[in-house]
Amino acid sequence: MLEVETSGDLLLMVGKGQLAATPSVETAGSSDAALVETAKNGDREAFGELYRLYAPMVHGVLLARVPYDEVSDLVQDVFLAAFRKLATLRDGASFGPWLAMIARNRAMDFHRRARETDELSEEFAQSNAPGVKAAEVLEALRSLPEAYRETLCLRLVEGMTGPEIAARTGLQPDSVRVNLHRGMKLLREKLGIRK
C-alpha cells in the first residue's frame, strides 16, 4: 500500500511493502491521458494515481540498472522529476514511455555520480548470507544486454505480463515477446539452467 504525504507544494509518495499491482492493459492509454491532464491542472490525487499505476514499472526499470539498495530512493527521484516536468509532456497517452525514459536517465545519472566504495573482506564475501541466490540471479540478469534486462526485470521481479510491459513502456508487444524469450534463454544459460 502507499502512504501519501504532502511536503510544501510537492506530493511525496512512500512505498510500504510491495508496490501496487499493475492494472490491466485496457486501463492504460486514454485513462492515463485523462489522469495526466488532470494532474497538469494541479490535481494531486491524479498524480497519486499515476504513481500507483506506474511505480512497479519504474521500480523494474531501475532494478535492472542500479543496486537494489538504491532503487527505492531513485523511484522517488523519478516521480519527483516527473512531477516537476509534467507540464512539458505534450501527449498524456505517452506518460508511460516518458516516465520510463526519465527512469533510465536517472539510472545513468546514478552511475555517473557513483560514489567510491570500500571492498568487503574475503571472509564476509564468502559467508552464506540470506538472499545470496537472489543476488546472483539479479547480477546475472544485469549482465544481459539492455534490451533483455529491462523486460525480464519487469516480468520476473515486478510480475508484469508482456502486454502490460508493452503498454507501460511504449514498446511494441512483439518486441517485448521476443525480448522476453531471448532474454530468458540467455539468463538460463548464465545460470546454468537447462530447459
Give structural notes.
This protein is mostly helical and 195 residues long. The protein has helices at residues 30-40, 44-63, 68-85, 95-112, 122-125, 132-142, 146-156, 162-169, 173-191; strands at 2-7, 10-15. The chain has a two-stranded antiparallel sheet. Strand 1 and strand 2 form a beta hairpin. Helix 7 crosses helix 9. The chain is globular, with a radius of gyration of 18 Å. The chain starts with a strand and ends with a helix. Residues 1-27 and 117-127 have low confidence and may be disordered.
SSE inventory with pairings:
Blueprint (H helix, E strand, L loop, with lengths): L1 E6 L2 E6 L14 H11 L3 H20 L4 H18 L9 H18 L9 H4 L6 H11 L3 H11 L5 H8 L3 H19 L4
Helix pairs in contact: 1-2, 2-3, 2-4, 2-7, 3-4, 7-9, 8-9
* Proportion of residues in helical segments: 55-70%
Strand content: 5-15%
* Principal-axes shape call: globular
Number of strands: 2
> What is the annotated CATH architecture?
Orthogonal Bundle
Rg calculated over all Cα atoms: 18 Å
Main sheet characteristics: 2 strands, antiparallel
Number of helices: 9
CATH class: Mainly Alpha
Structural class: mainly alpha
Overall mean pLDDT: 79
| SSE series | EEHHHHHHHHH
Low-confidence stretches: 1-27, 117-127
Q: Which sequence of strands runs across the widest sheet?
A: 1-2
Summed up, the domain count is: 1
